[in-house]
């Protein structure tokens, strides 16, 4: 009796009967068994939500540090990598500030400035490079607003995700209201980003005063590792009397770049530009 020819291999490896560690071949008409754990198979479609990795730009071969790419997720999912860290940073900041400012209930004199400015979710940011993908102020932003914080009055959250035509992603995550200690809030937002799940601080915070802007910007680089993917994400934050926010930016050319070589002064200037575009007088 001659040996029947082997069936052709599929794009994700040989079929189950050729797997020496898998289950025995199934009989015709029976229900195939699930492939054993670890056996190569097509990645499932990527779901929405926070913290899920995506390769900004999509397409092309997988870059170093990423697992082999299957079908790329839709553009609307690619900001997930940085969104979780950015929102988590603001949430963490609120909790830390609340713990420190309990003195407010014991007679400490916190001064709350007049409300004169707000943050607005714009359709475009950075002179049109980034376009609005999702306004999450009413969903994810609700968690920020619920975080107790004695140093803020009348807080309203702003959370928005943006993408660019070149495969970049930007997340704006923050709040507006009456901030008694904006500089303190800015620093705590940075701490929150560095301590978020899946994040590692690889370049410590530095402060900048971008030319032409009367605001101090604090920036750092956070490395995110999720599902085998690695991305170095520059993040910057500001705080003033009425607004405090962070932006996280990914561009394909800096995704796997040496974090120490990322130009944080340039990202600080972009953050000041975002503040200028998103911050508007009340009324």
Task: Provide the fold topology.
Blueprint: H1 80-100, E1 117-119, E2 124-125, E3 130-135, H2 140-146, E4 152-164, E5 169-179, H3 182-194, E6 199-208, E7 217-226, E8 229-239, E9 243-250, H4 264-278, E10 279-281
Antiparallel strand pairs: 1-10, 2-3, 3-4, 4-5, 5-9, 6-7, 7-8, 8-9
Account of the protein in words:
With 283 residues, the chain is α+β, with helices and mostly antiparallel strands. The protein has a domain at 115-281: Protein Transport Mog1p, Chain A (3-Layer(aba) Sandwich), CATH 3.40.1000. It has helices at 80-100, 140-146, 182-194, 264-278; strands at 117-119, 124-125, 130-135, 152-164, 169-179, 199-208, 217-226, 229-239, 243-250, 279-281. A hairpin with a 3-residue loop joins β8 (229-239) and β9 (243-250). α1 crosses α3 (182-194). The longest helix has 21 residues, at 80-100. The termini are far apart.
Features:
alpha+beta, two-stranded antiparallel sheet, Protein Transport Mog1p, Chain A, single chain, 4 helices, 283 residues
